């Protein structure tokens, strides 16, 4: 996988994580239980993060040990294959506690918009 392809996957992860954080701004766990669209959107964004992470090669993952790659891809598998048994408390914990750290780590790896990724740089927005 080329460096560009890795950057595209990392950008997808970062974009999805930022969207999830944005969707939860000023929300509570109770909102997640009452708003089916929010719950489905967040679940889908976590799936996207996990799917993109699956395509990041292990030699690159080894260089970014602060990112919990196995947890991310495992969450994706769980959400996709056990879709009828999703624990929204776990989803909320991931969104509210783990995503801010993930965003911070990904921002260290992904060039800012306009410098090789994002619009005009080859990474398609999600």
Describe the protein.
By secondary structure, the protein is mainly alpha-helical. It has one domain (3-109). It is 68% helix and 0% strand. The protein has helices at 3-24, 29-34, 36-54, 58-61, 69-81, 88-109. α1 runs antiparallel to α3, α1 packs across α6 (88-109) and α3 crosses α5 (69-81). The model is unreliable at 115-124 (pLDDT under 50).
Topology:
Elements (H helix, E strand, L loop, with lengths): L2 H22 L4 H6 L1 H19 L3 H4 L7 H13 L6 H22 L17
Helix pairs in contact: 1-3, 1-6, 3-5
Low-confidence stretches: 115-124
Q: What series of H and E elements makes up the topology?
A: HHHHHH
Count of separate structural domains: 1
The level of helicity is 55-70%
**Globular, elongated, flat, extended or rod-shaped: what is the shape?**
globular
What Rg, in angstroms, do the CA atoms define?
Answer: 14 Å
Summed over residues and divided by their number, the pLDDT gives a mean of: 90
Structural class, from secondary structure content?
mainly alpha
The largest sheet is: none
First and last CA, distance: 20 Å
By DSSP, the count of extended strands is 0
User: Treating each run of at least 4 consecutive H or I residues as one helix, how many helices?
Assistant: 6
> In percent, how much strand structure appears in the residues?
under 5%
List keywords for this structure.
126 residues; disordered C terminus; globular; 68% helix; 0% strand
